[in-house]
Amino acid sequence: MICISVTPVSRTFAKVDLLNASGQCDLIELCLDKLVKEPDVKDMLEGISTPVLVSCRRKEDGGSFEGTDEQRMMILRQAILAGPAYIELDYATAQSIPRFGKTKRVISYTSLGKPFGPAEIEEIFTEAKQINGDIVKFTWPTPTLEAAWPLLAAVAKKRDLPAVGLALGAAGAAFSLLGRKYGSPWMYAALEKGMEAYEGQLTVSELDEIYSWREIDSHTAFIGVVGMGMSEVVTCRCFNAMFKKSGLNVRCLPLMSENFDKLKSMVDSLKINAIVTSRALGDEMLSLADEQEESAKLGQYADLLLRKGGVWQAYNSIWRSAVRILERSIGGEGSEKRPLDKQNVLVIGSGSLAKSMIYGISKRRGLVSVTSPNDKEAQEVAGQFQVRYVPFQNLYNTLSDVVVVADPALRIGTGKTEFNPSYVVPRMTFCDVTEMPMDSSFITEARGRGAKVIEPKEIYLDQLAAFTKSITGKEVAANEFEGIINDSLSRMATNSDE
Fold first, then answer.
1. Is there a contact between 54 and 30 (Cβ–Cβ < 8 Å)?
2. CA angle at residue 233 from 318 to 202, to 5 degrees?
3. Staple 252 to which of 60, 234, 236, 344, CB 3.0 to 4.6 Å?
4. CB-based contacts of 323: which residues, under 8 Å, 6+ apart?
5. Which of 6-15, 257-266, 367-376 has the lowest mean pLDDT?
6. Is 322's pLDDT higher than 90?
């Protein structure tokens, strides 16, 4: 089930929020923390057919109630008299408020610091049973999957009392999807943007539109998507739409980690056999791999990991898609020659993404030069790949047919470590592989200056099609993802304007 939490500041708003939430979820949590006047819960629940869970939490429990504990307990007692489906009580409060009527008791345990340990969790279930609990609720910060892991274990283990969890942080999305698979009674979602219980909480529409949350069951298989940027969100949405259309019980699981050794053991436990990585973490993800293809090893970059025969293999696909679209643009469809052959290509960057592009362009006989605000690193990369090194201060005296931006940290400007867009002229072909499928500020500048722009969306579409074939074995035309990407980009543009 999906539980939408609403925290109104007045009875009028409470009725509106409850009504809006009722058609989109299976359970509504009515948080009484912020009601400035004593709430009339019976009146607020009038006409609401969806089951309601009532809560009123102290600040130390992650709530907003500013009154005395006696006032809060009086509010909870009166709420129980209204007959909601559930009442949430912390351990101390539950000892003072007895069971009444048919209202079920959710015994809540919150740690705003570190997660509860395994021994503490077992004690909690014993305590909750002794005070007539029907469900145990755990809440703690989950910035990474490692922090969410014990929370998932608490929810997934079969006991006399079921458990639900509220995962606060970036790994909350992964916890919600896994909780659905492993049979948690419900998971929490926000009604809409601006009404989140914590920063980054998914809305009910995001759970539905991006992750197809309601269709996940105990047999659903996951592929991992590392990173929580806009590009990764679009990737999840595209893949999940494709899985749904193909009738595959597979969904994307967003992964956040700061210890990739632990991540490997966790994805193995979850029986995940494919991981798509963000461009920012392509170098760190190599530590997960047992084997690396040549371009992944030389570029020290992987954007796809596949487990085959119990062995994780790392692949570098970004250069393939970027070079394919680049050559198509330069040479036209059906060109039999190598369009990059003898072209002067300037790659800006010295990290793993730049190395990947240098590797691919060199294979296609492009005449590569490399530059970077970090001259020392750029010189080392030039030596590694046997290409020309250009000091960053000499960039503007360098003739280039093609410019490839492959440094996510690069900024536009006139400073010593910034890129001055006046370098771009109409005869150039300009490519940026750092923010696909979105247009970067570099792409916008190049387009405005009349250069031939390699559309980031086209590279991204090609890469999605390649990922799909590698993961599922199915041939999917790149343009099948185009509608979803266009819609996602349109929404992003609308949100930025607002």
1. yes
2. 160
3. 236
4. 340, 357, 360, 361, 363, 364
5. 257-266
6. yes
DSSP-derived secondary structure for 218-238 = TT-EEEEEE--SHHHHHHHHH
Question: Which residues have a Cβ under 8 Å from the Cβ of 46 and sit 6 or more positions away?
Answer: none
Per-residue model confidence as pLDDT tens digits over 351-407 = 999 999 999 999 999 999 999 999 999 999 999 999 999 999 999 999 999 999 999
Which residues lie closer than 8 Å to 487 by C-beta, 6 or more apart? Answer: none
DSSP letter assigned to residue 241: H
Q: State the Cα–Cα distance between residues 478 and 437, nearest whole angstrom.
A: 13
101: which 2 tokens? 């009527």
Q: How many CB atoms sit inside 10 A of residue 396's CB?
A: 11
CA distance 231 to 325: 19
Residue at 268: amino acid letter: D
**Tokens at residue 423, please?**
């370098």
Alpha-helical regions (H) of 46-132: 69-81, 91-96, 118-130
- DSSP, collapsed to helix, strand or coil, labels residue 48 as coil
- The residues near 381 (Cβ < 8 Å, ≥ 6 apart) are 350, 354, 355, 358, 370, 372, 387, 389
Q: For residues 16 and 21, what is the distance between their CA atoms, to the nearest angstrom?
A: 9
Tokens standing for residue 330: 């330069």
Task: Please report which residue ranges of 194-293 form alpha helices under DSSP H.
Answer: 204-209, 230-245, 260-269
The pLDDT tens digits of the residues spanning 16-54 come to 889 898 888 899 999 998 886 777 888 888 888 899 999
For residue 51, say if its preceding peptide bond is cis, omega within 30 degrees of 0. Answer: no
131-153: burial string, b at 16+ Cβ within 10 Å, e else = bebbbbbbbbbbbbbbbbbbbbe
Amino acid at 307: R
Q: Distance (Å, rounded) from C-alpha 394 to C-alpha 452?
A: 23
Which residues is 459 bridged to in the sheet?
none
